[in-house]
Amino acid sequence: MTGITTHVLDIHTGLPMAGVQVELFDVASDPPTRISGGRTNADGRTDAPMLPGTAARTGHFELRFHVGDYFKSSDVLTEVVPVRFRVFDAAQHYHVPMLCAPWYFSTYRGS
Q1: How far apart are CA 40 and CA 67, in angstroms?
Q2: CATH of residue 72
Q3: What is the dihedral of CA 83, 88, 91, 96, to 10 degrees?
Q4: What is residue 51's DSSP assignment?
Q5: Range of the domain at 36
Q6: What element of type H or E holds 69?
Q7: What is the pTM of this model?
Q8: Which of 60, 67, 66 is nearest to 87 (CA)?
Q9: E runs forming strands in 6-107
Q10: What is the tens place of the pLDDT at every residue in 81-105?
Q11: How many angstroms separate the most distant Cα atoms in the chain?
Q12: First and final CA of the chain: distance in angstroms?
């Protein structure tokens, strides 16, 4: 499997975050070019890869997680969480999960 995938988890509740808008941008261009977007499903994942394996390539990318709409509370730290990363080997799969709460977020390279 190749390409870019993601999922979003609410660490406050321990549940997947459904309905979160996620966008993928190519940040090598100025301004950044939007490649794809979608909303997370009940499992916290987008129904399709953000970048399918057939379009896999090296480059600099940014995932934007629109978490403010999900939490809808006055103590949300950020509305949109940007995660910039580099694909250095297009033959590999890049899974970039987002862990968040209204006042916290973190990511890592998953499998």
Answers
A1: 11
A2: 2.60.40.180
A3: -20
A4: B
A5: 3-107
A6: helix 68-71
A7: 0.94
A8: 60
A9: 8-10, 15-16, 21-26, 33-39, 59-66, 81-87, 93-95, 98-101, 104-107
A10: 999 999 999 999 999 999 999 999 9
A11: 42
A12: 10
Q: Encoding tokens for residue 22? A: 């996620």
Cα 29 from Cα 63, distance rounded (Å): 15
Instruction: Using pLDDT thresholds of 50, 70 and 90, give the confidence band for residue 75.
Output: confident
- CA distance linking residue 91 with residue 109, whole number of Å: 15
Q: What does the CA dihedral 61, 66, 71, 72 come to, rounded to 10 degrees? A: 160
Look up residue 63 and give its two tokens: 């995932």
> How many domains is the chain built from?
1
